[in-house]
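Hey team,

Sharing the CCA-adding enzyme run so nobody has to redo it. Sequence (422 residues) first:
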Amino acid sequence: MTNSQEFIKAAPIIYTLNEAGYEAYFVGGAVRDLLLDLPIHDVDIATSAYPAEVQSLFPRHFDVGLDHGTIMVWFEGETYEITTFRTESTYQDYRRPDNVTFVQNLEEDLLRRDFTINALAMTPDHQIVDYFDGQKDLANQVIRAVGSPHDRFNEDGLRMMRGIRFASQLDFAIERETFKAIKDNASILVHIAIERITVEMNKLWIGVNWHKGLSYFLSTDLIQYVPILADYKHVFSDLLDLTSDRVQLPDENFAWALLFWRVYELSGHKDITMIQQQVRQFVKAWKMSNQSQKEILAYLEIFIYRTDHTEWKLVDIYGRNQHQIELVETFIALQQENAQVLFKTVFKSNNPQVIHELFKALPINSLRDLAINGQDIIREINPKNKREIGQMLKYLEQAVVKEEVINDQLALLAYLKDNYQI
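Structure output:
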């Protein structure tokens, strides 16, 4: 275990609870990732101490989830969630329990968790507490619900999305009964807030085996119970057939753009405006941010451009994001290297290395770099309609990028006088 530093830093919290007479353990995903030798993110602690007792032991705290027994403790510059052992009652909304009961038994606490690989606890000296064969499932690369999978998914419908997300992230298989329970209970997903589904879907896209995650998304019928995507089930299937599972997706917005690019392709290149509108409708339905929409549309436009052009020109890369273009070009190249016919057919030539050189060759990177401004135009030309000044600057911007004139103030003014029709 080479990634235990986060646990070493948090160990004094457990020792403090133990010295006060309480049980305390590291729990959840951090323990799983430690055993898999993956990067550790949030280290969580479960304890027999009640919230008020945790508060008294750690004066620097935030009561972020007091009703559910969670105290956020500030310790040595880090924050840690400390949660009292608990059981949960019925779930009226398939997400939140009606009541939480604090208990003094770790096994009861772990029984309420989603999957065996997440129902592990650990002491500071790395002694694993495993009531549900989670370590065996880790070794066998299996995702299995704790106890009855039907009960777990009726308690919290989001666990079904988490299951297929873990399949993608860890490249694990979903155990047969757990898979059947997801398929049988898929309709519960309509009761889950779309923002939570979005988080899980985005994580699925960027997993080490996103093909596996998407395959489960389709085969469990979860796709039928989320907004809009049921209409694109054939497009998902098409992507799985026509891309290599050995090529990972760089980020979730890239992934959504890839999906909508394939929608555009299958539509016969009919209407760019229409596909852009479909993206906007999707982003709104899934309650994504404006930034996500901007990035999805930017990636989509790059894919569409490359569909119609064999190479980039200076004027066409100007104003675009270099990193985004490089990610698209690299993805195309990797798919071609993995003998994916679609990418060899649609994208006739491809050299990701050229992009860096093209951006270096740009004479300007934005309108701000232009060696002339509105005051210069007023002083030298003084157009009657001052609103034309902005149009003149845009005209000069394009002329510089097309290398029709050098970016020099005198040259720009002369070019404007000779070529711009006022």
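The longest strand covers residues 78-84.

Ping me if you want the raw files.
A.
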